[in-house]
Amino acid sequence: MTPRILSMTDLISLEVGQDFLDRFERICEFLGVEPDLNVTVFECSSLEEFNQMTGMGYHIGAVYVNGVVYTQPFAILKKKECFEDIILHELLHHVLQLNFHLPHWAEEGIILTLLGTKPEEIFGYHRECLLRFSEEVTYEEIPHFVDRYRRSHLEHR
Ligand SMILES: [Zn+2]
């Protein structure tokens, strides 16, 4: 078995479709950012490979690092019925890092809030981030909150 490497654009057209894209674009509009899809997806061929590549336990479905999303085998995530949400979660790390200098806990908290993740559905670090964020910022306040961390256009050059 070998890993599969594909672009985010291909993943969307092959695996998830227009509804996913609409959902992503609505969130980007809410955040006031361009819906950037310039991401590579690295689908590990097995859980062992995922663990070796990322150092993550099996309760983490995917990881975003510098423009690349490393995922567990798609079939496993689909079986757990979390495939779309996990891909969208990682894609939001990408657009948030591209546009804002957010503290990591806030970045995680924003994504979990935007995707409607409930604290009882998660544990460990993710749960801490969600609880901390929800104590400080409501859903409606997210655009105003992220604006304070927006990168200047000069940085992109
Ligand atoms: Zn995350």
Description:
By secondary structure, the chain is of the alpha+beta class. The chain contains eight helices and four strands. A hairpin with a 2-residue loop joins strand 3 (62-65) and strand 4 (68-71). The radius of gyration is 15 Å and the shape is globular. The relative contact order is 0.13. The structure holds zinc ion. The site of zinc ion (ZN) has 4 residues, from helix 5 and helix 6.
Number of helical segments with 4 or more residues = 8
What does the average pLDDT come to?
A: 94
Structural class: alpha+beta
Q: What is the topology, as strand order, of the major beta sheet?
A: 1-2-4-3
Parts with pLDDT < 50 across at least 5 consecutive residues:
none
Distance from N terminus to C terminus (CA atoms, Å) equals 40 Å
* Number of DSSP-assigned strands: 4
Biggest sheet descriptor? 4 strands, mixed
Computed Rg: 15 Å
Bound molecules: zinc ion
Q: How would you spell out the order of helices and strands?
A: EHHEHEEHHHHH
Q: Assess the beta-strand content as a share of residues.
A: 5-15%
Shape assignment: globular
DSSP helix fraction:
40-55%
